[in-house]
Amino acid sequence: MREQIRGTPGVALAVAGLTAVLLVSMGLGVAIGSADLSLGTVFDAVLGRLGLGPGVDVLDEHIVVDLRLPRVVGAAVVGAGLSVCGAVLQSLTGNQLADPYILGMSGGAALGASVVLGTGLGLGSMAGGPVIALAAFLGSLSALVLVFAISVTRGGALIPGRLILAGVAVGQLTAALSSGLVYFGPHGTAERVMFWSLGSVAGVRWNTLVLSLAVTALTVIVVFWHARTLDAFAFGERSAAGLGTDVTRIRWTLYALVSLCTAVLVSVSGIIGFVGLVIPHAVRFFVGPLHARVLPLAILAGALIVVWADIVARTLMPARELPLGLVTSAIGVPAFIWLLRRQKGI
Question: Which of 67, 236, 250, 283 is the most exposed place for a label (fewest CB within 10 A)?
């Protein structure tokens, strides 16, 4: 099966197939919920809002267009963005365990959210609220700036080993500060922070989705442009430089861009684990290491996984919604173990 997919026709067919499955899954994601709707109703509601059809009942249109559709699109954007960021960071750092949060941004985002949730500045506890999202975004960027400041050399280079160690150190620092805020915060702070940190796209709306979509699209375009350069990094920094790659400039560009993308995604969805780690590995297992093949499939597969994880999160237990990160971890851990065993030939 892997040999069939690794060829160019096989990859093209896989991209087409995953695209079709993703579109159908997003339609089902909008239709499935406490108020079950048909795919026809979903289609008519969207056309009605665009002024291209007679539309549907006002309540159904509100549910479809204003509540569920941005949530489903947000889930797809988050999954696609985390997957492409994970793939890039694994290549740049040469670390198979790298994921979008390796540079301490998840800890910074959690600290920013903890400040809001622990002090009441957000005037509410809904994950995805505008104040919480802004605080998480600023916390992510602050952590990233600190990581870069610690790890950059005097010559302005970013060495992967130092960068990862700085990310771990900053992550530990922000985790300690977040724990302190939770400990000394008012009653209920721990529950609110925990729910946010486990991830959710329940609060995604069109106004918060626009920025995420724009930054993710920009990241995808730039990363695709540097696909061959990322292939060169697989042979080491010296080999990449020998092939004419401006290693320092490329590292700064891609690190900064994928970090910005991760910060934006974390601000709207919280911390969703295993997507950025497992999906790139799974795709490479089937199509090989070339990024021209890995990137499109990773984007589609990541979007598909998070869309279905969100469907499961809000339908598995009718009385309450499960955290999205809990569902992705439940999927990601067995998948990662399976990949490890298959790669070892066990």
Answer: 236
Cβ-count burial of 61 within 10 angstroms (0-12 exposed, 13-18 middle, 19+ buried)?
middle
The DSSP code for 97 is T
Bridge partners, 158 (sequence order)? 152
Residue 267 in 3-state DSSP?
Answer: helix
Q: Which residues, including other chains, have CB under 8 Å from residue 221's CB and lie 6 or more apart?
A: none
Instruction: State residue 96 phi and psi, 5-degree precision.
Output: -70, -15
The mean per-residue pLDDT over the stretch 26-54 comes to 85
Domain at 257, CATH number: 1.10.3470.10
What is the tens place of the pLDDT at every residue in 99-152? 888 888 888 888 888 888 777 665 444 444 678 888 888 999 899 899 989 988
Token couple for 75:
């889930």
Q: How many residues are listed for the chain in this entry?
A: 346
Distance of alpha carbon 193 from alpha carbon 155, whole angstroms: 40
Rounded distance between C-alpha atoms, residue 257 and residue 85, angstroms? 9
User: What is this structure's pTM?
Assistant: 0.88
Structure tokens at 99: 């994921």
Q: Would you call 319 helix, strand, or coil by DSSP?
A: coil
Instruction: State which residues form the domain around 284.
Output: 2-343
What is the full DSSP assignment across 113-181?
HHHHHHHTTTSS--TT-HHHHHHHHHHHHHHHHHHHHHHB-TTS-B-HHHHHHHHHHHHHHHHHHHHHH
The CA-atom distances, in angstroms, between 261 and each of 9, 28, 103, 288 are 31, 27, 13, 25
Rounded to whole angstroms, how far apart are CA atoms 248 and 253?
9
Count Cβ atoms below 10 Å from residue 148 Cβ, excluding itself. Answer: 18
**Is the alpha carbon torsion for 94, 232, 297, 262 positive or negative?**
positive
Domain count along the chain? 1
Q: Alpha carbon 109 to chain centroid distance? A: 14
CA atoms of 213 and 77, how far apart (whole Å):
6
Element housing 282 (H / E) = helix 275-287
Q: Which of 274, 127, 131 is nearest to 201 (CA)?
A: 127
Rounded to an integer, what distance in angstroms lies between the CA atom of residue 63 and that of residue 268?
Answer: 20
What span, in angstroms and rounded, lies between the C-alpha atoms of 262 and 260? 5
